[in-house]
Specification:
It is a single chain. The protein has 4 domains: about 5-95, Phage tail proteins - horseshoe like beta roll fold (Roll), CATH 2.30.300; about 100-165, 3-Layer(bab) Sandwich (Phage tail protein beta-alpha-beta fold), CATH 3.55.50.30; about 180-195 and about 255-310, no CATH class; about 200-250. It is built from 4 helices and 23 strands. The protein has helices at about 50, 110-120, 140-155, 235-250, and strands at about 5-10, 15, 20-25, 35, 45, 45-50, 60-65, 70-80, 85-90, 100-110, 125, 130-140, 155-160, 165, 175-180, 185-195, 200-210, 215-220, 225-230, 255-260, 270-275, 285-295, 300-310. The strands form 5 sheets. Strands 1, 2, 3, 4, 7, 8, 9, 15, 16, 20, 21, 22 and 23 form a 13-stranded mixed β-sheet that branches. Strands 11-14-13 form a 3-stranded mixed β-sheet, with helices on one face. A 3-stranded mixed β-sheet has the order 18-17-19, covered by helices on one side. The two termini are about 35 Å apart.
């Protein structure tokens, strides 16, 4: 039986024993989060844990089995609950972008130019080539600007491996592939297998021109689940083609939902997972990972993986 192991670094101190670690990874949420629950009595050199850990401390979480630990979270402490047991809450490096409001405006700007203006020194970022036209920032933190870009333009921003990515929801350069078997690796699941004919979607494709004007194309079922996709500076014919393509990719024969597996191999959002089942080999497929919830502690090490769609 495998033994749980971990090395949690907070500020200048390292901790091997914790009661529970709860981590959530998702591009949808802008910020990955981590909550650590410590044992009732933790001290060092007659100092309580609440004296050792401070808001703003750096946090690195390495966990695994039999000392084969992997880094699953890096960020900054944002809150310390001094109740018993002590809990510590942290954000990934988006924490650094939630302060220092900015006020500026652009007559014509690209995503890369906006990030150059708002992202503080010391943070590495990568962005897609997207022109946004006229743009104004009115006393907003960088994080609020990134949230606005997602809601208004469909631009996703998130940290991965300490790097801020902005633009596409998924990037191939950090993507890892994993395989899970229903008969060996999957502990429990909330997956349903559906055919394309069973699925109803209504797709709205929006093209944003450099002057911020918008063109829309709608495809699919009027009473279907709504999905919106954003594009930049493409004509109406191409927008219609993209809408049809998105609808086709959403309506697939395959699984929807979540499944829970062991803590390793370590999966992050944006990775791909291949699901296999000896009982139903015809249902085999590879999916993009939408989100991951990670639990580590006295009840073991588990990760719950949410599927987005089939990976082409």
């Amino acid at each position: 039986m495998k033994r749980l192991s971990g090395n949690i670094i907070i500020g200048e101190y390292q901790y091997a024993g914790v009661v529970n670690i709860d981590i959530k990874h998702s591009a949808e949420l802008l910020t990955d989060t981590c909550i650590i629950t410590f044992p009732r009595k933790v001290s060092w050199d007659n100092k309580k844990i609440t004296d050792l850990i401070k808001r703003g401390n750096n946090l690195t979480v390495n966990i695994g089995y039999d000392d084969n630990n992997e880094e699953v979270f890096t960020g900054i402490i944002r809150e310390i609950n001094a109740d018993i047991p002590v809990t510590v809450k942290a954000d990934d490096y988006m924490f650094k972008l939630k302060k220092n409001s900015i006020k500026t405006s652009f007559q014509k700007v690209s995503l890369k130019e906006i990030l150059t203006e708002i992202i503080p020194d010391g943070i590495t970022w990568k962005a897609n080539d997207i022109n946004l036209g006229k743009f104004r920032i009115n006393n907003a933190t960088p994080a609020k600007v990134l949230a606005y870009l997602k809601s208004k333009y469909g631009i996703y921003s998130f940290f991965r491996n300490g790097i801020l990515y902005s633009g596409l929801k998924y990037w191939g350069e950090y993507q890892n592939s994993h395989e899970f078997s229903f008969t060996k690796d999957i502990i429990s699941h909330n997956l349903t297998y559906k055919t394309a004919e069973d699925i109803k979607y209504k797709v709205t494709a929006i093209s944003i021109a450099e002057d911020n004007s918008r063109t829309e194309e709608k495809k699919g079922d009027e009473d279907g689940e709504q999905r919106t996709f954003y594009y930049y500076n493409i004509d109406k014919k191409e927008l219609e083609r993209r809408a049809e393509q998105e609808l086709e990719e959403l309506k697939y024969d395959g699984y929807r939902g979540t499944f829970t597996t062991f803590g390793q191999p370590t999966v992050f959002h944006g990775d791909t997972v291949k699901l296999t089942d000896k009982r139903y080999p015809e249902r085999e497929g590879t999916y993009i990972v939408k989100s991951v919830s990670r639990l580590f502690g006295i009840k073991g090490y588990r990760q719950t993986i949410e599927l987005d769609r089939l990976w082409n």
